[in-house]
């Protein structure tokens, strides 16, 4: 039986269980799958592939075996993850549509777990591939953010597209571009708190529609291969000394028994960035430029271990001398993502370097093709400013709003990144809960970085008859 638009919106607001699997058995099986890949490569005369050497269950997952987001919070995470990933004249529509097309794909099953609807399960094959890829970003980032918060409980987390970050210093394509881009993680999560060094975690998100393997009873082979691949991608980037940056590898099974399951493994470490002091040289309010010519070939220095000599390898290496610049880059790119999410246009351009796509935002915006910063809502006495778009569920018109707390946005708009971060931490305890959205008539999601995303049903328009 088809659900009405009101039923769909109501289901997007209900918290549902998403299971997290991170076990020694999973780590062992991923190790075995990686060994099988290496054997096949040797038989073909191919070179060995570098991977994270210390994959293990994530310690925080021992305390967080499941999370209970609403489907709308998952789609909020998806939208934030994609907001700077593809600059272009259609970005305003695209950054909303990445989330909105899945409004009817998620619901809660009888067991109280988040699951795919019948519509989400019976999608065409080509669409399923895209659905697995994109929803994996949403579930992966929601899970990764929670695990990072568990490790740094008094910090705010910012999600940054790795490609957008790396464009400021490195060439992303390989020597033979038809072989694809150079290996790197999908996202970087920065955990930050004013007065303390920021901490960075690499994140790789993958997903699949495979049902649990009858042979294993638990984890499908596709999931194992995705985690193996994730280990290769995460190893392609290093901050500071080799393998001191933690990573989270996540593979989401969208059709698992009992609902959606996020499989995750991690590599330990800690990568604190140099402490910035507001008002002094090197703070995030200062404009920075692209650092051209950072080498990729033989850039990573791997120390001697297991009887092997020290060696160098290809990859994205942020050296010790580049850490202050890199910290500024993360903070300013994060600010760009916030303003872009709220339809900031030229407010976004001030934070991006030329290679990051500044010129895409430093132009007049048009509502038909871009995000225009011209909408606002008030929830629980707090004013949020941002952008909106209208789409349809059958014949019902739905308004989608994405934006920021007005006070925080004003600081970002004025180029005051460090002041924004201080204010965001002070307002963190006052961030409304999704269930406390007052009389808002649709799903709404708040994040402690100040962003909000909401849906509402628009009044029926009367047709004028002659």
Q: What Rg do the Cα atoms give?
A: 22 Å
| Low-confidence runs of at least 5 consecutive residues | 366-370
- Give me the number of helical elements: 13
Kindly report how far apart the N and C termini lie: 37 Å
| Domains (count) | 1
Helix-strand category: alpha+beta
Shape estimate:
globular
On the 0-100 scale, what is the average pLDDT? Answer: 88
What kind of sheet is the major sheet?
A: 7 strands, mixed
- Taken as a percent bin, the fraction of beta residues is 15-25%
State the helical fraction: 25-40%
Q: Major sheet: order of its strands?
A: 2-1-10-9-7-6-5
Number of strands: 18
Summary keywords:
466 residues; alpha+beta; 7-stranded mixed β-sheet; 21% strand
Describe the structure.
This protein is α+β, with helices and mostly antiparallel strands and 466 residues long. It has one domain. It is 32% helix and 21% strand. The protein is built from 13 helices and 18 strands. The strands form five sheets. A seven-stranded mixed β-sheet has the order 2-1-10-9-7-6-5, with helices on both faces. A five-stranded antiparallel β-sheet has the order 14-15-16-18-17. Strands 3-4 form a two-stranded antiparallel sheet. β9 and β10 form a beta hairpin. α2 crosses α8 and α12 packs antiparallel against α13. About 1% of the residues have low confidence.
């Amino acid at each position: 039986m088809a659900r009405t638009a009101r039923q769909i919106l109501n289901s997007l607001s209900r918290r549902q269980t998403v299971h997290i699997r991170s076990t020694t058995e999973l780590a062992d099986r991923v190790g075995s799958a990686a060994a099988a890949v290496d054997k096949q490569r040797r038989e073909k005369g191919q070179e060995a592939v570098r991977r994270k050497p210390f994959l293990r269950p994530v310690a925080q997952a021992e305390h967080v075996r499941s999370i209970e987001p609403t489907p709308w919070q998952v789609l909020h995470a998806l939208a934030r993850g994609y907001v700077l990933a593809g600059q272009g004249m259609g970005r305003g529509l695209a950054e909303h549509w990445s989330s909105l097309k899945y409004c009817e794909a998620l619901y809660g099953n009888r067991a109280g777990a988040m699951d795919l609807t019948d519509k989400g399960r019976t999608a065409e094959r080509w669409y399923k591939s895209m659905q697995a890829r994109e929803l994996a970003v949403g579930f992966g980032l929601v899970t990764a953010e929670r695990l990072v918060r568990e490790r740094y409980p008094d910090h705010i987390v910012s999600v940054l597209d790795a490609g957008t970050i790396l464009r400021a210093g490195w060439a992303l394509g390989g020597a033979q571009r038809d072989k694809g881009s150079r290996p790197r993680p999908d996202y970087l999560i920065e955990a930050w708190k004013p007065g303390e060094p920021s901490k960075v975690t690499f994140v790789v998100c993958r997903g699949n529609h495979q049902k649990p393997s009858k042979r294993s009873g638990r984890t499908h082979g596709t999931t194992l291969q995705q985690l193996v691949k994730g280990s290769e991608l995460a190893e392609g980037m290093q901050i500071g000394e080799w393998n001191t940056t933690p990573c989270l590898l996540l593979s989401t099974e969208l059709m698992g028994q009992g609902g959606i399951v996020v499989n995750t493994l991690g590599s330990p470490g800690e990568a604190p960035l140099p402490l910035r002091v507001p008002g002094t040289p090197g703070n995030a309010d200062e404009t920075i430029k692209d650092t051209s010519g950072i080498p990729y070939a033989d850039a990573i220095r791997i120390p001697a271990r297991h009887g092997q000599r020290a060696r160098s390898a290809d990859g994205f290496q942020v050296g010790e001398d580049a850490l202050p610049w890199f910290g500024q880059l993360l903070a300013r790119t994060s600010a760009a993502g916030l303003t872009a999410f709220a339809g900031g246009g030229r407010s976004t351009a001030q934070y991006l370097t030329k290679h990051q796509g500044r010129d895409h935002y430093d132009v007049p915006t048009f509502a038909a093709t871009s995000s225009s910063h011209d909408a606002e809502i008030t929830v629980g006495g707090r004013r949020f400013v941002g952008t909106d778009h209208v789409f349809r569920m059958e014949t019902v018109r739905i308004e989608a709003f994405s934006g920021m707390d007005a006070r925080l946005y004003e600081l970002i708009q004025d180029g005051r990144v460090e002041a924004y971060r201080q204010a965001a931490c002070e307002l963190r305890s006052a961030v409304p809960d999704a269930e406390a959205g007052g009389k808002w008539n649709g799903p709404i999601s708040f994040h402690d970085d100040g962003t909000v995303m909401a849906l509402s049903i628009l009044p029926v328009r009367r047709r004028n008859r002659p």
